[in-house]
Amino acid sequence: MTDLRNIAIIAHVDHGKTTLVDKILHQCQLFRVNEEVKDLLLDNNDLERERGITILSKNVSVRYKGTKINIIDTPGHSDFGGEVERVLNMADGVILLVDAFEGPMPQTRFVLGKAIELGLKPVVVINKVDKPNCTPVEVHEAVFDLMFSLDATEEQLDFPTVYGSSKQGWMGPDWQNPTEDVSHLLDVILEHVPAPKVVEGTLQMRITSLDYSSFQGRIAVGRVTRGSIAPNQPITLVKNDGSMKKGQVKELMVFEGLGKEKVKHAVGCGEIVAILGLEGFDIGDTV
């Protein structure tokens, strides 16, 4: 699956994560130009709207230069620690989004620490460089020091840095020279984040999150870590306590844009899928 990238976004509250994802979606033309969408697409839970924070990690998927990029949102608050780890397990790389004025925050440390532990490749985005008195250079050093203190490997410490303003809709290699759009960041993702490894064998997938639809009931979401999965395939659900249940994939979906798209064919290793018609599952179970 060389034409696939799974990347998680880590950011402190209000450092501009949702705006950045919006701009990436715009860049990849998911919205027709005439729809000036109500901004902030990811925060669609009522509780989140109120608090203006992201709790349920959501997946968004864009296509860029023939590659599909799954962008996985991580919760920015430490109250959601357990979810963070499960979510990061779906990714091969992380975008660390930092405010050019405030620098890395304590909360970022927790999530970043987990990502580094899991061996994910970081791409650092220093955002809001349009703010007066911002200090992108110092912030870059602070991020390096933070990663170093978290025992990052040499390869992880050799991270690419992208500067920009998600509010103004640009990302580039140099904070003093605004670019036209966010494509520089997407190019960096394609170059630095590895494609998922393909592991042959019987299907394995860990359920990392669940979606609910009033029409279809509970939907299991996770990443295929081995083999492939197809609609109508009989599967075994392994519960957290080790017990097993037989089941069947009634419908299979992949993420496309802001929604999900039904697929008729088998989906390979590394892709993030949603399974309908699976009964009695919990987050953390394995298919």
CATH topology of the largest domain: the name is Rossmann fold
Query: What sort of overall outline do the alpha carbons produce when their principal axes are compared?
Result: globular
Rounded mean pLDDT score: 81
The sequence of SSEs as H and E is EHHEEHEHEHHEEHEEEEEEE
CATH architecture of the largest domain: 3-Layer(aba) Sandwich
- CATH homologous group name of the largest domain: P-loop containing nucleotide triphosphate hydrolases
- Please give the largest β-sheet: 7 strands, mixed
Percent of sequence in beta strands:
25-35%
Low-pLDDT residue spans: 31-57
Count of beta strands: 14
The percentage helix is 10-25%
Rg from Cα: 19 Å
Total of domains? 2
Top-tier CATH class of the largest domain: Alpha Beta
Strands in their spatial order, largest beta sheet: 2-3-1-4-5-6-7
* End-to-end distance: 21 Å
